[in-house]
Design brief:
This protein has 2 domains: 3-80, Beta Barrel (OB fold (Dihydrolipoamide Acetyltransferase, E2P)); 99-242, Up-down Bundle (de novo design (two linked rop proteins)), CATH 1.20.1440.120. It contains 6 helices and 7 strands; from the N terminus they run βββββαααββααα. The chain has helices at residues 88-104, 112-126, 131-146, 192-199, 213-231, 236-242; strands at residues 3-16, 20-27, 31-37, 56-62, 70-79, 167-168, 175-176.
């Protein structure tokens, strides 16, 4: 078995047996990888703090043919975002990001753009970025990368430009203008289309926001509605955030 390596972010871990951990990590070149870190719960183990959630690591592992789990040989800690998780809202938001990554990223498939998105948002949080804005930034990009972000600028039926937000279609695959929408159940946040166009051109560390705090909340409601529809469930971490 050849030793393989990859840059990765730890999404979550859980205990197995008396001394080991199962590790779910997001690799830059192989997407979601699930592995076992033998002896990771022993005092003075070789992994140290490198398996903490959202640690940015270089992982060394073996793949066994026919086995779902790889065997993690070692981890070099490149960057720790542990201090971000002292605040409860930030901790739940980071768990929410991890849950979305695990849901929308296929196993063992290169996801370089999504990896760089998560890492850049974590660095923006570390630099003191606004939590709600970065939440909306991440939600927008993960929908776009996954192909689930609908056209928000034109009516799905008549193709006229929509300037006031419009109404979200039942399948969350487009927006209808007031004339074409039959049910008018979900109003799209008026600033969402402008926000989406802005984030396509700006990194998460950009301080000049196109939407104020009062606009971000309805924008996130629309984005989360689309996310929940495609996941077919509400993310567990999102339920805690709403509380």
């Amino acid at each position: 078995m050849p030793l393989e390596q990859s840059e990765a972010l730890i999404l979550r871990t859980f205990a197995v047996g008396e001394q080991d951990k199962i590790v779910i990590l997001f690799s830059q070149d192989k997407g979601i990888i699930k592995g076992v870190a033998k002896g990771a719960r022993k005092f003075g183990n070789r992994f140290g703090s490198s398996l903490e959630p959202m640690s940015h690591v270089k992982i060394f592992y073996y793949e066994k043919e026919g086995h779902e789990l790889v065997v993690i040989n070692n981890c070099d800690l490149l960057e720790s975002f542990f201090d971000l998780q002292h605040e409860l809202d930030t901790s739940f938001t980071i768990s929410y990001f991890a849950e979305l990554i695990e849901e929308f990223s296929p196993a063992m498939a290169r996801e370089d753009i999504l990896f760089r998105l998560l890492l850049s948002v974590l660095k923006a949080l570390e630099a003191g970025g606004d939590l709600e804005f970065l939440g909306a930034y991440f939600e927008t990009w993960i929908l776009k990368i996954s192909g689930f972000l609908p056209d928000l600028q034109r009516c799905r039926k008549c193709r006229k430009e929509i300037k006031n937000g419009g109404w979200l279609s039942a399948k969350k695959d487009g927006v209808y203008c007031s004339d074409c929408s039959l049910y008018k159940k979900e109003k799209v946040a008026p600033g969402l289309s402008v926000f989406v166009q802005w984030i396509k051109k700006n990194p998460p560390t950009e301080r000049k926001l196109t939407a104020g705090a009062e606009q971000i909340a309805p924008i996130r409601l629309t984005l989360q509605s689309i996310i929940v529809y495609h996941m077919e469930r509400e993310p567990k971490s999102l339920r805690y955030l709403k509380r």
